[in-house]
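Let us practice reading a record.
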Amino acid sequence: MIHLYYGDGKGKTTAAMGLALRMAGRGRGVVIAQFLKGADSGERLALAPLPQVTLLPVPEQVKFTFQLTVEERRDEAARNQALLDRAARLAREPDCSLVVLDEVCDAVNAGLLSLDALLALLDAAKAEVVLTGRDPRPELQARADYATLFQKISHPFDRGVSARIGIEF
């Protein structure tokens, strides 16, 4: 089934990683692909030692999409497509029970990943798939078996508080 965690509220990635932890706790294989994110996250550090979890590689740091030059956008699009391709291959493996595609909706919306390629992964996956991001395309909403909206009511960032280790990353 397809799980869609979306909206402008905090907790989409946290929920996806919680489901990954639940699946790994049951001894089942999990693949995690993160788009538009770098390697410095508490979730990656906590999940990395688990033998059931395959964390696909990400760069140490990633620029915000609005900071990318034309050449960097092209390179980032190629990297995102290669990441999705690898996740798609692993999603068809018999020992894979869950694939998390974190921030994939945003990668599609930024033009750094093909919606058609993502839909093809959803069609071919033998595993549960979790999609996260802010504004999923209607095609993704239509395919979701589970759709959960995360709505921001308030957030410390609105008062100028920067992201904090262990809370936002």
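A brief commentary: The chain has six helices and six strands.
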